[in-house]
Write a structure and sequence with these properties.
Distance between the termini: 37 Å
Number of strands: 2
Oligomer: single chain
Number of domains: 2
Helix content: 55-70%
Structural class: mainly alpha
CATH superfamily of the largest domain: Tetracycline Repressor, domain 2
Shape: elongated
Radius of gyration: 18 Å
Largest sheet: 2 strands, antiparallel
CATH topology of the largest domain: Tetracycline Repressor, domain 2
Amino acid sequence: MSPVSKFGQTHSLRRLPVQERSAARVRRMLDAAADLIEEVGYDRLSTTAIAQRADVAIGSVYQFFGDKRSLAEALSQRYIDLYFERLTARFDAEPPADWRAGVEAAIAEYVHMYRTAPGFRVLHLADAIDPGRADAVTTGGDVIAEQILAGLAQRFGIGGDDDFGKTVTVAVETGQALVRLAFRRDPEGCAASIAEANGVVCDYLARRLP
């Protein structure tokens, strides 16, 4: 896999690293941003602190990122990539019997990211991704919904029109919100709230699947 593909097709980098040495620097900056977001929150995050934590010159940060927002968006995209890598591996190892089992696996992997990925619960993947697009503001939920739509068609033969796409987007946003609530109630994730997320999303989709 090339260094470029590590950052996904949608990104907020000023330019993509071509050489492995540059890609390693960008990964260090993203690692530093994740750790700092976990420690101090997004509002107190600064590019100076990121440069110091990553042991790079501040000019290296601005070489690839316009500001801390674009860096956080690149981190969100990295987490989306990781989420789908894990979900795909899970489906390949143990194919879900039906779409409900697929939903439960998708929520379980999202919960895993909350528990293990630094800064993930702060970012929520809800901030705008690629804000330079003039036609729309794309969020992490939009990107996840688009890939889940493709997965439903590929694995379960479920497809639909634009209205179905909107349905999946609502399901994703609802699932995200309920998982966020689960971790507000319990730092490790309230089991009852996670179960409720599964039930609500599955019931909603069952009423609207084509």
